[in-house]
Amino acid sequence: MRQYIRHPTSIPIHVFCASTHALPVEAQNLSAGGLCFLTEEAVPIGSLVEFSIPVVKPSYRGEGIVVWQHEQAPHVFEVGMRFISDDDYFRTRMVEQVCCIEEYRQNLEALGKHLNTEEAAKEWIAKFAAKFDDELQ
Questions:
Q1: Is residue 27 within 8 Å of 92, Cβ to Cβ?
Q2: Cα(34)–Cα(83) distance, rounded to whole angstroms?
Q3: Which residues are 7's β-sheet partners?
Q4: Which one of 41, 49, 61, 110 has the largest count of C-beta atoms within 10 Å of its C-beta?
Q5: What domains, with CATH codes, occur in the chain?
Q6: Average pLDDT for consecutive 10-residue bins of the chain (137 residues)?
Q7: What dihedral angle (degrees, nearest 10) is formed by the CA atoms of 96, 115, 27, 106?
Q8: pTM for this structure?
Q9: CA distance 71 to 69
């Protein structure tokens, strides 16, 4: 049974495998327990990876461990990573912020304003991040 709710997302993330090279990745979903992404390289189960999520403020950086991997097509791997940090509060806050940004982007899209996720994140942060922080305290 799943412990955390998964939130579909297209947020930009950066993943580094074994601190040696950056993997080109596309985020699929995010939860307080970890994230799932697509990449062109196989990442062995048990691998330690470093990652950053630059669209949340403050920028989130952390480490994870690969807990599963499925080859979707030749050179397309879906990878599941579990966060290592025990900072549940910060992870939950990050997920909530990402969800707010995506909802904001979709609302703008419905009004005819087309922004990519990073543009929406910058705009949302400028308008709402301070209020978001106040509500959490």
A1: no
A2: 5
A3: 30
A4: 49
A5: 7-83 (2.40.10.220), 88-136 (no CATH)
A6: 55 74 80 84 90 75 90 92 74 75 88 90 85 56
A7: 50
A8: 0.66
A9: 7
Q: Give percent helix, percent strand, percent coil of the chain, each to the nearest 5.
A: 30, 35, 30
42 C-beta neighbours (distance < 10 Å), count: 13
The whole-number pLDDT of residue 137 equals 43
Instruction: Round to whole Å and give the CA distance between 25 and 58.
Output: 21
Show the tokens assigned to 12.
């930009």
Instruction: Check: CB of residue 34 under 8 Å from CB of residue 67.
Output: yes
d(CA 25, CA 59): 18
Q: Tell me the H-state helices in the chain.
A: 88-110, 117-136
